[in-house]
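Researcher: Let's do a round of design. I'm pasting the structure tokens now; please hold your answer until I've finished.
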């Protein structure tokens, strides 16, 4: 495994497009070769044993070979540089390749389930030879190695497509292992298990295909930023002078190593504009160097007088009193002869127990308790960062 990693990554950046391309092409080439060999071996075993389950498992390996072709082509296309028609590059081709692999897995599962159901209704005797048993046992070992190999690559380069390929290999190993044990039991106990074993293999395949489809479709549809990445961005940004806080972080994924991000950075309203601008530029360059993210930062001036800070603290306390997950930002005060406007945004998680209108009403009621002169102007925001999972 270390030799493969050195070939793919060497001393370079695992997130670099050319590195991902080498790893994807290597994984695809190995997958094509091994799956074709397994297909020929299992097809021979299926013909010898007259087992629908073994034959179906052979064609599952043939579909895996086709999936490896898709993976190889997908990574080759994803490695292409940006052009006039695709200014953000072709990185999402990797996700599309993973989705095609998932669809092929599901198709094989459906076909296998149909064939197995027919075999359950019309069982036929199955003979198990030593050669067939050896072929199936070797297949389990090869698939376990492919799982280990692809999982290692996927972790190093953070690839959903290779992760789907690894999951497929593991389910294949489990399905073939169950198939072998079942055929042994059927041979020695004379039980008509072939159709039922084929159906079990089909369910394994369908479950794997569904999980792989979800993992690859999510980034295409647009998913929230990973919580750990968001926390590291907070640490980097807030480590610079003048920046008091960040909010409204929006992340766009155009494929591994190709992302854009924007957020608002709160800065003192009385700070030197040129100095703050220089800090913002430095933050953008640092995020690009560390996380390969093109970043656009909007500066929000924050008034830091005692009265504004005191009222902001009170309003933040009201929000936490409604629910600890609620936070506020962009807090401003505009005083008038009759009432004082309190303008701010509140961040409400998706699926929150209260509607946006109910949150506004609850905040307004709490603010009214502070003073009848206060008039809240509330904007409800929703977070684009992955929600913290309960332990």
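Researcher: That's everything. Go ahead.
Model: Designed sequence:
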């Amino acid at each position: 495994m270390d030799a493969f990693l050195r070939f793919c990554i060497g001393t370079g950046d695992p997130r670099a497009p050319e590195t991902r391309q080498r790893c994807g092409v290597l994984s695809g080439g190995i997958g094509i070769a091994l799956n074709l060999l397994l297909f020929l071996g299992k097809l021979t075993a299926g013909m010898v044993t007259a087992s629908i389950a073994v034959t179906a498992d052979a064609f599952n390996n043939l579909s895996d070979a086709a999936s490896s072709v898709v993976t190889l082509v997908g990574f080759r296309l994803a490695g292409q540089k940006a052009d006039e028609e695709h200014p953000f590059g072709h990185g999402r081709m990797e996700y599309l390749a993973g989705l095609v692999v998932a669809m092929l897995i599901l198709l094989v599962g459906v076909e296998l389930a149909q064939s197995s159901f027919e075999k359950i209704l019309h069982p036929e005797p199955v003979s198990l030879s030593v050669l067939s048993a050896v072929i199936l046992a070797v297949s389990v070992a090869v698939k376990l190695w492919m799982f280990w190999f692809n999982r290692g690559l996927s972790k190093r380069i953070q690839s959903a497509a290779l992760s789907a390929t690894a999951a497929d290999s593991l389910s294949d190993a489990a399905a073939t292992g169950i198939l072998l044990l079942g055929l042994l039991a059927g041979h020695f106990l004379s039980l008509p298990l072939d159709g039922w074993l084929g159906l079990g293999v089909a369910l394994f395949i369908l479950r794997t295909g569904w999980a792989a489809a979800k993992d690859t479709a999510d980034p295409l549809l647009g998913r929230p930023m990973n919580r750990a990445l968001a926390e590291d961005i907070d640490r980097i940004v807030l480590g610079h002078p003048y920046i008091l806080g960040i909010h409204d972080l929006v992340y766009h994924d155009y494929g591994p190593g190709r992302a854009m991000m924007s957020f608002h950075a709160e800065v003192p309203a009385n700070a030197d504009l040129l100095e703050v601008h220089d800090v913002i530029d430095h933050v953008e360059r640092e995020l690009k160097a560390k996380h390969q993210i093109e970043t656009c930062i909007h500066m929000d001036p924050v008034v830091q007088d005692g009265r504004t800070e005191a009222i902001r603290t009170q309003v933040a306390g009201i929000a936490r009193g409604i629910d600890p997950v609620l936070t506020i930002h962009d807090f401003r005060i505009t005083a008038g002869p009759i009432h004082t406007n309190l303008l701010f945004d509140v961040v409400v998680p998706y699926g929150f127990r209260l509607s946006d209108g109910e949150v506004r009403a609850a905040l307004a009621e709490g603010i009214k308790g502070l003073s009848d002169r206060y008039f809240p102007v509330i904007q409800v925001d929703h977070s684009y960062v992955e929600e913290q999972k309960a332990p």
